[in-house]
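About this split. The held-out portion is used to measure sequence recovery: a designer receives only the structure tokens and must propose an amino acid at every position. Recovery is the fraction of positions where the proposal matches the reference. Here is one held-out target exactly as it appears in the evaluation file.
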């Protein structure tokens, strides 16, 4: 009961918080389309990606992320805080705080403190790489995209944006399905896989019906994200970065840190180049706020890990 209750809570809370980085731009740029059409597309991509991983990796839906040090075994028993951790994540999401679901959920199950340090190191490098990539990318195309956005939009951008979202969403599932599957056996049977995808598809339906819920504001307040052309470029660049880190190692990482690094670099370079209506000071404020929220989530996750996980606590203080 604890296993499936924890998974169900994690499935919705993790995707709801991480929706800003995967389907948030997609939602913002497709407000005129019915929610069920978006759900059919997003749900279909999820189903294909999850089934491919499950069928080719011996029932492992995490794409090998949970095989890394410290997460390879499902707990024989669960503590209250391990099951309740997704509830904390839901509360944080309602406060519109983009935090690392990887830290908040996986830390409660880490059997070695060093495994959390490995995740943190990879995630911080993700922020740096994403920030630098965004600076270079929008230094090259920022003003061009600004001019393009002021012209009538070609119909070709619609399929390109949906393609970019599909690639990004699939890549995110390969990275962050571990946050959901950490509650479950590392190899799922056919029935367990059916329950896994059914719960997530139901959560996606609720999320898209609510249009991303309150945390969607984190995306909506950024420059030009409602323009499909800008949304397409953001999604393609983000997907390339995530895919690169997926290939580097199987260590889990916080994709949230990658995403806020990407948005921060983009927002700052657009302000500096005069391609944004927002002054540099406001861009710095938004970037600093997002980092502060993620840092707060990291502190909360470590506190939860120490309180919820006796093995982690023993290893930390030995």
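Reference sequence for scoring:
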């Amino acid at each position: 009961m604890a296993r499936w209750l924890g998974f169900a809570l994690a499935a919705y809370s993790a995707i709801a918080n991480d929706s800003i980085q995967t389907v948030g731009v997609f939602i913002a740029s497709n407000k005129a389309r019915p929610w069920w059409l978006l759900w059919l597309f997003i749900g279909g991509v999820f189903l294909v990606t999850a089934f491919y991983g499950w069928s080719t990796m011996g029932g492992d839906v995490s794409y090998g992320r949970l095989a890394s040090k410290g997460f390879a075994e499902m707990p024989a028993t669960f503590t209250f805080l391990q099951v309740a951790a997704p509830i904390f994540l839901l509360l944080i999401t309602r406060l519109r705080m983009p935090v690392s679901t990887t830290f908040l959920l996986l830390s409660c199950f880490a059997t070695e403190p060093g495994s959390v340090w490995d995740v943190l190191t990879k995630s911080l490098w993700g922020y740096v790489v994403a920030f630098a990539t965004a600076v270079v990318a929008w230094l090259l195309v920022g003003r061009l995209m600004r001019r393009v956005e002021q012209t009538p939009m070609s119909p070709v951008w619609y399929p390109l944006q949906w393609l970019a979202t599909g690639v990004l969403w699939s890549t995110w599932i390969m990275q962050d399905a571990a946050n959901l599957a950490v509650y479950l056996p590392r190899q799922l049977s056919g029935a367990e896989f059916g329950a896994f995808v059914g719960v997530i598809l139901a959560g996606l339906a609720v999320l898209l019906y609510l249009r991303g819920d309150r945390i969607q504001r984190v995306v909506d307040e950024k420059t030009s994200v409602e323009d499909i052309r800008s949304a397409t470029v953001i999604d393609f660049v983000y997907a390339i970065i995530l895919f690169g880190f997926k290939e580097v190692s199987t260590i889990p990482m916080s994709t949230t840190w990658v995403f806020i690094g990407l948005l921060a670099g983009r927002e700052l370079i657009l302000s500096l180049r005069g391609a944004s209506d927002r002054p540099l000071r406001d861009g710095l404020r938004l970037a600093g706020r997002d980092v502060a929220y993620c840092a707060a989530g990291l502190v909360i996750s470590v506190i939860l890990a120490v309180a919820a996980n006796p093995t982690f606590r023993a290893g930390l203080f030995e």
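Annotator remark: The two ends are 32 Å apart (CA to CA).
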